[in-house]
Structure formats: structure tokens, C-alpha cells
Prior knowledge:
Layout: E1 7-15, E2 18-26, E3 32-36, E4 41-48, E5 54-56, H1 64-69, E6 77-78, E7 84-85, E8 89-92, E9 95-98, E10 107-108, E11 121-124, E12 129-135, E13 146-154, E14 159-168, E15 172-173, E16 177-178, E17 195-198, E18 202-206, E19 212-218, E20 225-228, H2 229-233, E21 239-243, E22 255-258, E23 264-270, E24 274-278, E25 302-306, E26 321-322, E27 328-338
Antiparallel strand pairs: 1-2, 2-3, 3-4, 4-5, 6-16, 7-10, 8-9, 11-12, 12-13, 13-14, 14-27, 15-26, 17-20, 17-22, 18-19, 18-21, 21-24, 22-23, 23-27, 24-25
Amino acid sequence: MNPLDTIVYEPFGWYAEKEIFKFTLTNVHGNYVELLNYGAVVKSIVVPDKNGNKENVVLGFPTLEGYIKDKSYIGATVGRFANRINNAEFSIDDKTYYLDKNDGKNNNHSGSAGFNSKVFDFSIKEDAVIFTLENEDGDGGFPGNLTTKVIYKWTDKNELKIEFLAVADEPTPINFTNHSYFNLSACAEKIQHHYLNIQADKIVESTEDYIPTGRIIPAENCSFYHYKLGDVMKDGGLNTYYIFNRNNVDEDSVCELFEEISGRIMRVFTSYPGLQLYTGDYLNSVEIGEHSKFYEPFDGLCLECQYYPDSPNHAHFPNTIFKAEQIYNEMITYAFDVMTLEN
């Protein structure tokens, strides 16, 4: 168990008449993670490369202003429903609910109700920062008062563990994810030279505006078996939902990201049935980021573990309509290490 002084926090600004704090979680190796109670954001993850150089491997901003102006959900907790909902509407028990149309005719990441711009309350335990949020019935069109906890832990094995807990007082769709953009070269390079492995042979077929057709199809040309990202992306980007091969939650990683020059590798573990790979095609920051640059397309990629997109409108997708008082409990772990390729 970590001593208390491994988690410290300091003022970071004000938003909507509420104070924002930056939390720093440091492990025995001196590697650390920074979080914000604005959006329950992951601000930085600082880990060594194969030569021991410690650098930040996620996109972020040095000031609160960067997050307030950000349109790319950088580092944020996304809820109450991550990803898209077709026509910004869904039905529960023959009642239709209408949401913000913030992505063409569709709803993405919950629109104005998105948790990415909410200010969370917080508490600090010996080895965890716990962010809590009370989200009111009707916010953005979603039914039910929702109580949410996002629990962050940073271990001595360089694992960032995220647990999502939620409960509502009436049936409502719930789907949380973390929207960190990873770049294991610490932005020395774009992401095209990263190697990616996803334990998934199937994807959710989607339209040009990323709405599922309802079909589950072979990943084929979109599959990743330790392939270089640029070889699969070709000249474009990817925004695709991958369904993990496993039938049950197990202890194996579902995804690995590797960057050869730094030697950094990240393994992803999760309770979710799949993930949305987004290669940052639309990154376009108006504030300078942590890496002393304006973020541009392909500066980072997201591995958003979550339920299927538009699940409330597809009865054969895993259920995301949680009943009153039904507990939502899912986890994501990002584990960092270094490795070198054998000659």
C-alpha cells in the first residue's frame, strides 16, 4: 500500500465557479500520473523509455484553458454514454428520449451533458483518487439521476487502473470510457510508426458517419496483429470498434501498443467487450499542449475500451440500458513497460 504522500494535489484554476485541482500520483520509481477533477481527466502519464528517460506519453495541456477550449475530449472521462447514438434518440419501454445532435444528426459522447466538461467532487484514499459526480435527470435528454464514481490508482508496476461505478434511479443508457490520446514516443513522432496488436477478429460495421449498421463483420484489412499503424491506416485514419475474441473477462491483455525507438510498450486490460480505436484524425488544438506544440492529426491515438456504439438502438448488441439501482461496474488498466526487439 502506498504511503499517503504519494498522492498530492494543488489548485489548477476555476471553472463554473468551482475550483479545479491537479492531482499527482507518484510510485516508488518516481514515475507519475497527473489527473484533474475537471472531466476526471488524465493530464499526463510520465514513464521511462528503454534508456530511463522519463517523458509524458499522453496528450494534454499545461493549463486549464487548454481543456476548456478542447474539442477532442483529450484525456477526459466520457459519459454518461460514450460514442455515437444514431439520430440522437433511443427508446426505453416505448418511450423515446431525444438527445443533443452534436455530431451531424447524431449524438456523440453525450453532447452538452458530456462528463468531459463536468467538475467532479473528489476524495483521496491511501492508494486512490476517487472522483464523484451527481448527474441530474434530463441533462442532455438522458433519463434518471445518475451517481458516478471514477476511481484512479497508479501502481508500482506502472499500471494506471481506472474503475467506473455508477447507479441511476431509473432506467438509462450507461457507457463510460477514458479518452486519452497515447503517443509512446512522447510526440517525437506521429503515431504511424507505433506497432499495435488488438485481440479482435471482428469489428462493428459502420456508416461513413460512424453509426453501426448492426452487422458484425470480419476485421480483415482493419485487423492488428503487431502491425505498424501506418501500414493499416494507409493514407487515412481509423475510427473503428473492435470486438474482443474472448468470451469472458480474463487476465490477458486485449491490446498492446509498442514504439520501437523509445522501447515503450503499453498493454491494455479491461472488463469491456471491445474498444474503439481512434487514430486522432481530427486533432486540432487551439492551445499549446504539454509537448510544447499544437496538437495535429495523428499526434496520438485513443484505445477507448467501452460497450458497442449506439447500443441502445441495437437489441442484439450487449445491453447498456441499466435498470434503476442496477450497478454499473467496469474497469480499464493501462500498463507501461519497456522492451527491445531482438536482432
